[in-house]
Write a structure and sequence with these properties.
The chain is of the alpha/beta class and about 250 residues long. The chain has 8 helices and 10 strands. The strands form 2 sheets. A 6-stranded mixed beta sheet has the order 6-7-8-3-9-10, with helices on both faces. A 4-stranded antiparallel beta sheet has the order 2-1-4-5, with helices on one face. α5 packs parallel to α6.
């Protein structure tokens, strides 16, 4: 018997003004798996993850978590189910430090209703330790951090609030080689802890280095899902550009 997927999308469809942004897409993500989601602009990637993260509601189809059908009609619903999304802009406040960003909107309060800064700092240290991550200082303004460090803060925020599924939109965009490597190591560490990760990228080199499987969308449809080790980059490009699925064992 095959293990139950952490997240299952079944027959997901969404139209905007008669245009099929996503058409009958079914996709699974396992616990501890990094799934690369690829496709040109307009392929339907963003719409699909916005349905999973509660920004959009699907016109039809079903979402299951650990085999059980769930309702995701808002980002609050998604977060309650352990689905966290990190968009390319990271949604960080540059005038706050790492701790302030980690708990932004979800601050820890004491008995009198005031923010418990000591508890938040301790919790932040614990989360970074779990991620095997170090920052120069938790009290430095985010504006002073490098791109990779900002990405780490955004990831830490999701992890702290018990993410089971992490959706990452272009997590290595605009990063240098060394920072890309560090973010990649962080993604692998989180996967080793059982977090399922959807990694959206236009850079097939990053995807090949990080993803266990590759899912390609084109014109709103899922072209195919293939294990990374069973395809080469030319075959992947053919899936993205022409919609051709490689024959098993052809790599």
């Amino acid at each position: 018997m095959s293990p139950t997927a952490l997240v299952e999308l079944r027959g997901i469809s969404k139209t905007f003004g008669g245009v099929h942004a996503v058409e009958n897409v079914s996709l699974d993500v396992m616990a501890g798996e990094v799934l690369g989601l690829l496709g040109h602009n307009g392929a339907g990637k963003s719409t699909l993850i916005k349905i999973l993260s509660g920004v959009f509601t699907a016109d039809s189809g079903e979402i299951r978590i650990a085999g059980k059908p769930v309702t995701v009609r808002s980002t609050r619903d998604a977060k309650a189910l352990g689905i966290e999304t990190i968009y390319q802009n990271l949604a960080l406040s540059e005038n706050l430090d790492a701790i302030g960003n980690l708990f932004l909107g979800r601050e820890i309060s004491g008995r009198l209703g005031f923010m418990n800064e000591e508890a938040m700092e301790e919790a932040a240290h614990a989360t970074l330790k779990r991620m095997k991550l170090r920052l120069p200082s938790l009290t430095n303004l985010v504006a002073s951090l490098s791109g990779g460090q900002r990405q780490a803060v955004a990831i830490a925020r999701a992890v702290h609030f018990n993410a089971r599924m992490l959706i990452m939109d272009e997590p290595t965009a605009a990063l240098g080689l060394e920072e890309t490597r560090k973010v990649g190591a962080l993604i692998r560490e989180l996967a080793s802890q059982g977090i399922g990760i959807i990694f959206i990228s236009h850079d097939i080199h990053d995807v090949f280095d990080l993803a266990d499987r590759l899912a390609v969308m084109r014109n709103g449809r899922l072209i195919g899902v293939v294990p990374t080790k069973e395809v080469d980059k030319d075959q992947l490009l053919a899936m993205i550009i022409a919609g051709s699925v490689p024959t098993k064992g052809a790599a």
